[in-house]
């Protein structure tokens, strides 16, 4: 019995059990490609005969073959001469432990921290150097500017001091040359000024602490009777004269031409009459 015949028997047994390739592969924990290669007897898709024999033995046991019968079929399909050959060693893969991986992570982290620290230190150094150089430059410019300004100010003051006596001498010479007797100016009054003086208006402001009655005659032409309420005031304008008759002079306060005006009266005497402009008769 060769490998192809053994594979056909395995496929027939799988069909009898109603298993698909994927289901059989899931049971034996192999890929469907390896299962198909074993059933077709395709040795090119199978590993070394030692491993292929083991795969087929496991597959046949899952399908329910008798162990004695299975051993005979495997011995025929895999002669001892093929099994004596040692399998070629595969590539050696060195497993990396979790401790080594953690060590690499810590080392990488330390390297990153060191690089970042050096970068920050370099930036700080450049900043300090630039700041110092900029400050020195500004300080030199400041000192130079104010030094030049002070020199110019001193020079200007010296020139002014030197030119002052010359100006005084020139002024004295000019005064001595141009001095001539002059007639005193006679003040003149224009017609417009005279009219303004004639049109000057005088004012009398009357304020009261309590309600009172007044009688006002303006320029001997207009007489007006006025009732003033408590804390009320009124301003009268006149050109020539004004006569004021007060019923309660003790509650009256007067301002003549915006100046406080006081007058004498006898308490309880009743009415009081004043004439403005003030005269000796008041």
TrEMBL record:
CDD domains recorded: HTH_XRE (cd00093)
Record has Magnesium as a keyword: no
Name the UniProt record assigns to this protein: Protein RodZ, contains Xre-like HTH and DUF4115 domains
Organism of origin: Desulfovibrio litoralis DSM 11393
Transmembrane helix among keywords: yes
Domain HTH cro/C1-type: 10-70
Matches recorded under InterPro entries: Bact_Cytoskel_RodZ, Cro/C1-type_HTH, Lambda_DNA-bd_dom_sf
PANTHER family: CYTOSKELETON PROTEIN RODZ, PTHR34475
Comp. bias intervals (Low complexity): 148-175
Ranges of Polar residues composition bias in the record: 176-189
One Gene Ontology MF term: DNA binding
Residue numbers spanned by region Disordered: 147-189
Transmembrane annotation, as ranges: 106-127
SUPFAM superfamilies: lambda repressor-like DNA-binding domains
Keywords for this protein: Membrane, Transmembrane, Transmembrane helix
């Amino acid at each position: 019995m060769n490998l192809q015949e053994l594979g056909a028997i395995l496929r027939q047994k799988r069909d009898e059990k109603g298993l698909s390739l994927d289901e059989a592969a899931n049971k034996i924990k192999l890929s469907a490609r390896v299962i198909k290669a074993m059933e077709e007897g395709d040795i090119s898709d199978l590993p070394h005969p030692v491993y292929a024999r083991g795969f087929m033995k496991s597959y046949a046991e899952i399908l329910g073959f008798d162990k004695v019968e299975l051993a005979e079929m495997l011995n025929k399909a895999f002669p001892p001469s093929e099994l004596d050959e040692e399998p070629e060693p595969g590539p050696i893969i060195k497993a990396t432990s979790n401790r080594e991986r953690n060590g690499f992570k810590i080392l990488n982290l330390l390297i990153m921290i060191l690089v970042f620290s050096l970068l920050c230190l370099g930036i700080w150094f450049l900043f300090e150097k630039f700041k110092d150089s900029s400050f020195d430059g500004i300080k030199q410019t400041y000192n130079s500017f104010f030094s030049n300004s002070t020199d110019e100010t001193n020079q200007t003051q010296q020139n002014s001091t030197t030119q002052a006596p010359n100006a005084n001498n020139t002024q004295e010479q000019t005064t001595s040359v141009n001095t001539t007797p002059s007639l005193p100016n006679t003040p003149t009054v224009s017609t417009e000024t005279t009219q303004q003086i004639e049109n000057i208006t005088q004012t009398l402001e009357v304020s009261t602490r309590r309600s009172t009655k007044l009688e006002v005659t303006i320029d001997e032409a207009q007489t007006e009777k006025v009732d003033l309420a408590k804390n009320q005031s009124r301003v009268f304008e006149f050109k020539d004269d004004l006569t004021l008759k007060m019923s309660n002079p003790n509650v009256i306060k007067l301002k003549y031409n915006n100046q406080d005006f006081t007058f004498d009266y006898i308490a309880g005497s009743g009415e009081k009459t004043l004439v403005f402009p003030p005269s000796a008769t008041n």
